[in-house]
Design goal:
Oligomer: single chain
CATH class of the largest domain: Alpha Beta
Distance between the termini: 38 Å
GO molecular function: manganese ion binding; metalloaminopeptidase activity
Low-confidence stretches: 5-37
Protein name: Xaa-Pro aminopeptidase
Mean pLDDT: 92
Family: Belongs to the peptidase M24B family.
CATH topology of the largest domain: Creatine Amidinohydrolase
Radius of gyration: 25 Å
Organism: Hymenobacter taeanensis
Number of helices: 18
Structural class: alpha+beta
Largest sheet: 6 strands, mixed
Helix content: 25-40%
GO biological process, one term: proteolysis
Number of strands: 19
Number of domains: 3
CATH architecture of the largest domain: Alpha-Beta Complex
Strand order of the largest sheet: 6-5-4-1-7-8
CATH superfamily of the largest domain: Creatinase/methionine aminopeptidase superfamily
Length: about 550
């Protein structure tokens, strides 16, 4: 799944069962944890020692005299009294392994005393056991389960956070990620996420007008205000147009008003010393999460292999009379068959002009017919997401025009692969792919000038992959342990200013690669990517060929 915008510099990212009648009146909301806490869970989840090590590395990155706070993700409502299946905040899961809502994590640079327990460097506050609620939404870990399974040093009921005795005024700096704002307040729960955030704001004396985005921008000015001024200045100028309040920030104003390097140096040095910050914690998590540990790579391999096999099976099953949503369902059936809990993002299955819509997720075309079919789909396995795209001809054979565009994208991807090695600039794969596509489009007569390339190749070629499909990372030089996508594409929608024979052709080829010490490992290589291999795969019998359902009569 592609990024919509290329980052301009290597800086941290800125940031079911529906009940009716009387039952609906007494039932709690239907949000629940990703997986049940209990003896039947699979054995290959990350070990608590992994999360413990991650917490310690974040704590080491904190300045002296500081504290860091992270909150669980909010429960999101889907319709009326039905919530979406709960999905934990990736940073919170990375540091804890906890997959339930209404929780918070606190990391102390120096040991603290909480409720009489000395030497505390980490504390988690979780939702308590509640047999009545658990009857509706599933088993909760509670404090005892959290202690036993997640091995956090200090565990307490979330209702105890307000009286935990954290001496907020004693900390020189308070670090946190952008606080969730659109959170429902459950009047039946005195310590839900809404109350936890409110209590933190009050006890830490966080100013009501604190702007997390300003904190991030201050960090960018400090890091890149001199050596990256030629790119940072226009970036900030565009940013303040979209966020007028940011343009009123004195530090931002001072930097943008500077007319030369001497003035910029003074402006950069004039950074205010704020007690509250989101930038340091964001930067620490970017640096950690961009380099995958062997345990993480194992889960990513599993997610990617499942997705690649899904592409194989759907290639074999595809026919012109099938619909986009049917084919989406086949992908997702394969994911469930192999134990993947979710999709990493909404599946994109688009034929013809729909393939030219970059984030097309309706998947509503009743028959794909003979138009090229773009399938951007990825399984999420134990929280880690794959991201694999293949483009195929439903008839089983590429037309001459389809073949020419496809071969161009394939050549661009091959060029990008050659740049996937340690030490290369993060944007090197994109630059290589863009050059091939630019020259190829001109040779085919689709464009006349290089500037027109972006019309048909409007996105970046790579992004990090991990707990988020667009995972955290610094966008610095590639290094061993990075897992990135390589996904060039060409999209020629109907009505484009070129020969009509190219219209309605959308091609993206996306693989997930692990950067190794000497180069890269294509984790998704099991999904056919050459024209010859795709056509051979599509000619094979499918396990779904004899899957017949009754015809629904009107």
């Amino acid at each position: 799944m592609l990024h919509t915008v290329l980052k301009p510099l290597a800086w941290p990212a800125l940031p079911a069962l529906i009940l009716t009648g009387l039952l609906a009146l007494v039932a709690p909301h239907q949000g629940q944890a990703q997986r049940a806490a209990g003896p039947d869970r699979p054995a290959d989840f990350l070990d608590p020692a992994f999360h413990k090590q991650r917490r310690e590395l974040v704590r080491q990155a904190l300045p002296a005299g500081s504290v860091a706070v992270l909150f669980a993700a909010p429960v999101r409502n889907r319709a009326n009294d039905v919530d979406y299946v709960y999905h934990q905040n990736a940073d919170f899961y990375y540091l804890t392994g906890y997959e339930e809502p209404e929780a918070m994590l606190v990391l102390f640079k120096e040991p603290q005393t909480l409720n009489g327990q000395a030497g505390v460097t980490e504390a988690i506050f979780v939702q308590p056991r509640n047999p009545e609620r658990e009857q509706w939404t599933g088993h909760r870990l509670g404090t005892e389960g959290t202690k036993q399974q997640l091995k956090v040093q200090y565990v307490a009921d979330n209702k105890d956070f307000a009286a935990a005795g954290i001496k907020w005024a004693s900390f020189q700096q308070v670090h946190f990620l952008e606080l969730p704002e659109d959170v429902r307040n459950d009047p039946r729960d005195p310590a839900d996420l809404y109350d936890l955030v409110a209590t933190f704001r009050q006890q830490a004396a966080l100013p009501a007008n604190f702007d997390a985005s300003a904190s991030e921008v201050h960090k960018l000015i400090e890091q890149y205000g001199l050596r990256g001024a030629d790119r940072l200045r226009p970036y900030l100028q565009n940013l303040v147009q979209d966020q007028p309040t940011l343009g009123q920030d004195a530090y931002v104003q001072g930097y943008l008003a500077a007319k030369n390097d001497v003035e910029r140096q003074k402006a950069v040095a004039n950074k205010p010393n704020g007690r509250f910050s989101t930038s340091i914690l964001n930067e620490a998590l970017d640096r950690l999460r961009e380099v995958k540990t062997p345990e993480e790579v194992a889960l990513l391999r599993r997610a990617v292999r499942i997705s690649a096999i899904g592409q194989q099976e759907v290639m074999k099953a595809t026919r012109p009379d099938l619909g986009e949503r049917e084919l989406q369902g086949l992908h997702e059936y394969v994911y469930r068959k192999y134990g993947a809990e979710f999709e990493g993002y909404p599946s994109i299955v688009g034929a013809g002009n729909n393939a030219c819509v970059l984030h097309y997720i309706e998947n509503s075309k009743p028959q794909v017919k003979n138009d090229l079919l773009l399938m951007d789909c990825g399984a999420e396995y134990h929280g880690y997401s794959a991201d694999v795209t293949r483009t195929i001809p439903p008839s089983g054979k590429f037309s001459p025009a389809q073949r020419q565009v496809y071969e161009l994208v394939l050549a661009a991807q091959d060029a990008a692969f050659k740049e996937c090695k340690p030490g290369k600039d993060f944007q090197a794969p994109h630059a290589a792919a863009q050059k091939v596509i630019e020259q190829g489009l001109m040779k085919l007569g689709i464009i006349k000038t290089a500037e027109e390339t972006r019309k048909y190749f409007p996105h970046g070629t790579s992004h990090y992959l991990g707990l988020d499909v667009h995972d955290r990372g610094s966008n610095g030089p590639l290094q061993a342990g990075n897992v990135i996508t390589v996904e060039p594409g060409i999209y020629i929608p109907e009505g484009s200013p070129c020969d009509q024979k190219w219209w309605n052709i959308g091609v993206r080829i996306e693989d997930d690669v692990l950067i190794t010490e000497k180069g890269y490992d294509n984790l998704s290589k099991e999904a056919p990517r050459t024209i010859a291999d795709i056509e051979v795969m599509m000619d094979r019998p499918s396990a779904f060929d004899n899957f017949k359902l009754p015809v629904l009569e009107n």
